[in-house]
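User: Sequence recovery, please. Input:
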C-alpha cells in the first residue's frame, strides 16, 4: 500500500526559552535536527515526504535544501499542531496515498527502520487500522493514519491532534514497538542536551 510521510515542522518552539533557539535548527553531529529527521524519512519505503513549515520557514527550508521533499507553508502555524496536520493533508500527493505516516520533526532518534516497521504493520493490516509507535507498550509517535480519516482530519483546528478523530471513528489502533525513540522529543534545552544536540547559535542568555 502507498504510504506518504508528513513531517510537522511548523511550531514555534516556545519552551526553548529564547525566540532564536529553534529546536529544529539545533545540531546533531553538525546536522540540523529537521534535516536529520527528513533524511530518515527519505531513506524509508514511503512513497513521498512532505514537510509542513511555519515558524522561521525560511531557515527551515534552508536546512532542508537539496533534499527530495515537498513542502507546504501553514500561515496559521501559531494555532498549533491540528492546523498543521490539516494543512498537510491538503497536499495532493498525500491525498492520493492509502495512508499517511505523521512524523514530528523534533524526534532525533526515530530512524528509517522504525518508520519501515510502522508502515509494514499498516500494509499487513491492509490499511484498516491506525498504527502507532510505542515504547514498552506506552503509546508515542510516529503514527500511521488510514485514508478513511483524511476528511475528518482536514477539519482540525488549534492545537488538537488526531486523537479525538481516531476515538470517534472507532478504528482499531495497533501499537508497534520501536523502543525509546517513540517517546523522545525535544521541547526544552535540557531535552536537547540530553539527546546529544546543541544549539546552532549559542547566546549569552543560555544557562
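Assistant: Recovered sequence (207 residues):
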Amino acid at each position: 500500500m502507498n504510504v506518504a510521510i508528513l513531517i510537522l515542522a511548523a511550531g514555534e518552539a516556545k519552551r526553548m526559552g529564547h525566540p532564536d533557539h529553534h529546536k529544529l535548527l539545533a545540531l546533531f553531529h553538525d546536522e540540523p535536527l529537521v534535516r536529520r529527521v527528513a533524511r530518515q524519512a527519505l531513506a524509508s519505503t514511503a512513497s513521498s515526504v512532505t514537510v509542513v513549515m511555519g515558524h522561521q520557514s525560511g531557515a527551515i527550508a534552508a536546512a532542508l535544501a537539496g533534499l527530495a521533499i515537498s513542502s507546504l507553508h501553514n500561515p496559521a502555524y501559531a494555532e498549533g499542531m491540528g492546523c498543521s496536520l490539516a494543512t498537510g493533508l491538503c497536499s495532493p500527493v498525500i491525498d492520493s496515498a492509502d495512508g499517511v505516516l505523521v512524523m514530528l520533526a523534533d524526534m532525533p532518534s526515530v530512524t528509517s527502520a522504525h518508520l519501515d516497521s510502522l508502515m509494514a504493520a499498516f500494509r499487513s493490516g491492509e490499511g484498516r487500522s491506525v498504527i502507532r509507535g510505542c515504547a514498552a507498550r506506552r503509546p508515542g509517535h510516529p503514527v500511521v493514519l488510514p485514508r478513511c480519516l483524511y476528511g475528518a482530519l482536514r477539519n482540525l483546528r488549534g492545537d488538537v491532534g488526531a486523537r479525538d478523530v481516531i476515538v470517534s471513528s472507532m478504528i482499531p489502533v495497533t501499537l508497534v514497538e520501536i523502543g525509546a525513540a517513540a517517546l523522545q522529543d525535544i521541547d526544552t534545552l535540557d531535552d536537547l542536551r540530553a539527546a546529544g544536540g546543541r544549539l546552532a547559535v549559542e547566546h549569552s542568555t543560555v544557562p
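Confidence is low (pLDDT under 50) at residues 203-207.
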